[in-house]
Amino acid sequence: MTPEQFRAHGKQVIDWLADYMEQVESYPVQSRVEPGDIRAQLPSHPPAAGEPFEAIMEDVQQLIMPGVTHWQSPHFYAYFPANNSPPSILGELVSAGLGVQGMLWSTSPACTELETHMLDWLVEMLDLPAAFRSDRAGGGVIQDTASSASLCALIAARERATRGAIRRSGASQPLTAYVSTDAHLSIEKAMIIAGLGSENLRRVGDGVIDPSALAAAVSRDRSEGRTPFFVTSTLGATSRGLFDDLTAVGEVCREHQLWHHVDAAMAGTAAICPEFRGIHAGLATANSYCFNPHKWMFVNFDCDCFYVDDRQALVSALSILPEYLRNQASESGQVIDYRDWQIPLGRRFRALKLWFVIRTFGVEGIQNRVREHVAAADLLRSRIEESDEFELLQPSYLNLVCFRHHGGDEFNQQLLDRLNAAGRMFLTHTRVDDRLTLRMSIGQTNTTAAHVEQAWRWIVEMSQQEEMSQQE
Fold first, then answer.
1. In this structure, is residue 73 part of a structural domain?
2. What total number of domains does the chain contain?
3. Mean pLDDT across the chain, nearest whole number?
4. What's the CATH code of the domain at 184?
5. Residue 47 within a domain
């Protein structure tokens, strides 16, 4: 593909994406294909000769689009969002075009220094503890996801607790970590990957960490010859949106010298609004913290911001320096090599899309969109409270609403299936007090109060249809 062809096809793709953004509400939110449908339409063998770009784009429309679940639809209310926005797409495009591999400062100084600066900007924007700034002992780095951030934090904590013994020769005694029942699955997975075993992960508290139960579990493990080392607090847990008490948990961590990691993957963005910064009360007790701009700050997947209060603990746990990576800049001690802050060696220029989004929206623009989402969630709560057929399952905060119909588990499952099959919206579920519960996450970039009002009308309409169906 020549530069001229690239220019022409690039304009074609941008036009196609602009059309998609305008038309996304016209698609069924959840893909309706059956397993194997997409692959059955693909050629059995790769083409021997190159094909016209027009044919590729035609197949995108005819083969790929039917198998896409439209995460960018304003009626995507499932899980938590993986958001997008035009400036983020353009930043990603520039990153892809430059093709930077930013493993070292010397492999592209702009990649490293822009990232450092963006992470410092976010400390200011979210009013995070000053210890997380790059001009202190700590600092921030962009990971792919909160799962990777949690794994890095856990490994750093493991090495600190064992004074590097596991890095050198492997585990000699069980190390124990602690979370609530609602903590993200990535913590258990991190324990498995780090070779510490899922059996050494303790769940202390239903939904949120019980500080007394945490202290008791730590003391018990220590008395039985284990080494407690790591606690993860969650802000806005995926299942029910619950928040751990960082101050109380942090006090236990400080008393027992445990690494305190805080996972705010979805909810963290809310702190860009001063009125929501209460979610971070007690964050100064944390050794590490992460949140995902790709969930609620309108940056496309993947982009997780991960902070530590002591970068040396992270670097010493993850750094390996072969001869072929040695260079004058690194050995000067004046630069950051982010390869030492993550699991893989290679790294993308993710800071560009973060930079594009922050500069295009501005702090006020992001704040306004977050406030609109929270207000829309409050509107939904009020509709549920006014209803005789539905109930809120628990007090909720920010943009996640958990609710159910009074008809029981089977009714709610049928209602959920009916809503999703209609294609107009996409919800998922959880269980609260062992009851099947619908959960509605309101945070997709373009979702407005009007969309939520429409979604509520569909929910009521479908519940009435389900009631009539069960009466027949």
1. no
2. 1
3. 94
4. 3.40.640.10
5. no
